[in-house]
């Protein structure tokens, strides 16, 4: 993802790259749902981070 992306666009790109829906990603970010280890690992990978970085 590019740093210049608008926040809404970045969320859509992240959700697409991870293979989850935008509403699901938003719920994860807000703490309204808990994701699986696989989802969090995929988010970290797409962001170029480790699981420990986002845990």
Please mark out the parts with pLDDT under 50 across 5 or more consecutive residues, or reply none: none
Task: Please state the overall shape, judged from the principal axes of the Cα atoms.
Answer: globular
Largest sheet: none
CA-atom Rg in angstroms:
11 Å
Domains, number? 1
| CATH architecture level-2 label | Orthogonal Bundle
Beta-strand content estimate: under 5%
Kindly report how far apart the N and C termini lie.
21 Å
The total beta strand count reads 0
GO molecular function, one term: DNA binding
InterPro entries: Cro/C1-type_HTH, Lambda_DNA-bd_dom_sf
Pfam family, one: HTH_3
Protein name: HTH cro/C1-type domain-containing protein
Structure summary:
The protein has 55 residues and is mainly alpha-helical.
Walk me through this protein's architecture.
The structure is a single chain. The protein is built from four helices and no strands. It has helices at residues 7-18, 22-30, 37-46, 51-54. The model has no long low-confidence stretch (mean pLDDT 91). The chain starts with 6 loop residues before the first helix and ends with a helix. The chain has 55 residues and is an all-alpha fold. Helix 1 packs across helix 2 (22-30) and helix 1 (7-18) packs across helix 3. The protein is globular, with a radius of gyration of 11 Å. Helix content is 64%, strand content 0%. The chain has one domain (7-54): 434 Repressor (Amino-terminal Domain) (Orthogonal Bundle), CATH 1.10.260.40. The longest helix has 12 residues, at 7-18.
